[in-house]
Amino acid sequence: MKQSKDNFSSGHTIIAQLLSLIPREIFKEVTEQEGADRYYKKLKSIDHFITMFYAVLTRNSSLREVCTNISFIAKSLIPFGIKQLPARSPLSDANRKRSHTFFQELYLRLYIHYRTNLTGNWLDIGGEVDPAKVEVFDSTTISLFKTVLKGAGRNPLEGKKKGGAKVFTQMNLAEGVPNFICIRSAATNENVFLKVMQLEQYSIAVFDKGYNRYSCFEKWSSSNRYFVTRKKDNARYEVVREFDCSHAPDIDKDQIILLTYRENRVSRTAEARLVGYLDPQSGEKLEFISNLMGHEALTIAQLYKNRWVIEVLFKQVKQNFELKYFLSDSENGIKTQIWVALNLLFTLLHRRIKEAEDFSTLVMVAAKNLCSYVSLERFLLNSKAYGERIFKTEPNKMQTEILFSG
Asked: What whole-number distance in Å separates Cα of residue 254 and Cα of residue 32?
């Protein structure tokens, strides 16, 4: 067969191009490590993953819908190991019984495999801080229609309180993808995450004031771990030293303070730095606390400002993948779908195309053209040239006559 000279053509469909980003040896190793196929005769782990990946990408909201629609692309999935088309009952059982830790481990292994491809100084936080040393963390809540996971807030006067999943996420600022994720019920307090998160020595944690725990700050300060966060409105403290900040027009306060708190009914103090920042655009005054003593006050404000990248991540996942309707009403199935939605494949592809298109366009183009043999990467890098090539090609006269006859 003569090879096509079309620079935009690919030997695989778009969904196959996406799945090819997962090295087979990684999938095989994770399957064996987690024993994911041990008790499953029909729906193997590869069938399960591909089906769930297809479901969250194309936003199929029911088992019947995903099992019917995936049959249209089944032929292009055979080279990637899919053994058979999923049926509703085996898929339902797999979502309920195959542990979500399989999908969790697959995500983490892919993160480790592609880590160097994701790293880069793509944010401007000044020259004082290496972005690779900055860890941003926050949580997002995903509402559920059943009380599978306990929801936050008070019980309503009428009816039942809906459930919810809270996804605690940690992200390195140089990578822009989660390196640690913990999924709990929506009622889980933010301070719980501080006990399970991983912060290496000489790293800087940046987070919202909802995670403020002064005893944790004190431990970090004594072990060469640093933080930047907002000051709580009801914080009790004493100013012990004040610095001149007249040289920095956006900084109106730079102080060393002693935060007062109680732990186990004992009054304690923790030393911190308090920086007051006046936003030149909105005029809003913000106050930050940190244990970074040798950095410029403006650097502390810039570090917190770049916390927005994790909010962008949450927005990308919720807007582009199916997390409103779940294909399972079990806790395990819900966590499985969340892990699949957090996949790194689109983030990796977004970096490869040098962000030539926005993330939502990338996902939309892929989802609507899964059976196309056009190279998704080359198309996104130069979609205009692809359109021009189509219309410069001499049209087939016979087809043109058929279209406009009658």
From this structure: 55
- pLDDT value of residue 182: 93
Q: Give per-residue burial for 329-342: e unless 16+ CB within 10 Å, then b.
A: ebbbbbbbbbbbbb
Structure confidence by residue, pLDDT tens digits, 68-124: 999 988 888 887 778 778 899 999 999 999 999 999 999 999 999 999 998 876 666
| pTM of the complete model beyond 0.70 | yes
Name which of 362, 369, 367 is nearest 348 in CA terms: 362
Q: Which residues contact 84 (CB under 8 A, 6 or more apart)?
A: 42, 43, 47
Closest CA to 173 of 223, 135, 203, 145: 135
The alpha-helical segments, DSSP class H, found in 59-160 are: 63-69, 74-77, 88-97, 100-118
Sheet holding 237-242, edge to edge: 178-185, 164-172, 134-143, 204-207, 226-230, 285-290, 266-278, 251-263, 237-242
> Tell me, what DSSP letter sits at residue 161?
-
